[in-house]
Each structure stands twice: as C-alpha cells, then as structure tokens.
Amino acid sequence: MSIISEFKAFAVKGNVVDMAVGIIIGAAFGKIVSSFVGDVVMPPIGMLIGGVDFSDLAITLKAAEGDVPAVLLSYGKFLQTLFDFIIVAFAIFMGVKAINRLKKEEQAEPAAPAGPTADQQLLGEIRDLLKAQQK
Known about the structure:
One of its GO terms (molecular function) is mechanosensitive monoatomic ion channel activity. It comes from Pseudomonas pohangensis. Keywords: Cell inner membrane, Cell membrane, Ion channel, Ion transport, Membrane, Transmembrane, Transmembrane helix, Transport. It is a single chain. By secondary structure, the chain is mostly helical. The protein has 2 domains: 1-50, Non-ribosomal Peptide Synthetase Peptidyl Carrier Protein, Chain A; 53-107. The protein is 69% helix and 5% strand. The chain has helices spanning 3-11, 14-48, 75-106, 118-134, and strands at 59-62, 71-73. A hairpin with an 8-residue loop joins β1 (59-62) and β2 (71-73). The chain starts with a helix and ends with a helix.
C-alpha cells in the first residue's frame, strides 16, 4: 500500500472528519463563550468589585536602564487570567447544567416493561399444572 493511499484511508475515516468538524465548531463556540464572558458576564462583575484589574500588578526584578526595558514578574496578569478562567468555567458549567435540565425534561418516561411472551406464558401454565398434579 502506498503512502498516498494510506493517507487517503486515514483522512477519510469518519473519526477524523468528525474530529475536524468538532474542532471547527469548538473554535467558533469558544468565540461565543469569550464574548459572553467579556461582554455580558464581566461588566456586572466589574461593577460589583469596583473595576479591579489585577493585570497591572508586578514585581520589578530589574529596573529599566536606558533602552533596556525593566524585567518584571507580572503575577497580576496570571491572577487576572486565573480569575477569567474561573468565571468562564463557571459560566460554561451553568450553561451545561441548564442544557442538561432541558434534556431531562424532554426525555419521556421509560416504557413499562413488556409482559411475558407467549412462550413464557405457556411455560408458566405448564409449571402451574405440574405443581397442581404433585399436590
């Protein structure tokens, strides 16, 4: 089998195509979530905490000298990213929770278990007749 035919067999497998579609949709969904968090969730939270932005917090390891910029340990950017992640994760959690609740409402009640088949009924009758004869 040539390398081209092997690649073709790999590339057109259902799993690879499904994965590609999932990645593309996931990237688009990521933009939606980022917009939701940045444009809908963060403004009220910013108002509640007084517009605190940690991204400017840093420790100067080496001061600027002439054209050489200062060396900073920007722990504030890390903290801001961490808080953003927690907010995004919580927003996604709440969205998934709402979707799961809707799915549960849509699910029909499980069907009643099926009664015994004709063969099972006949075997039950034979069993009952044999028990009656033994008495």
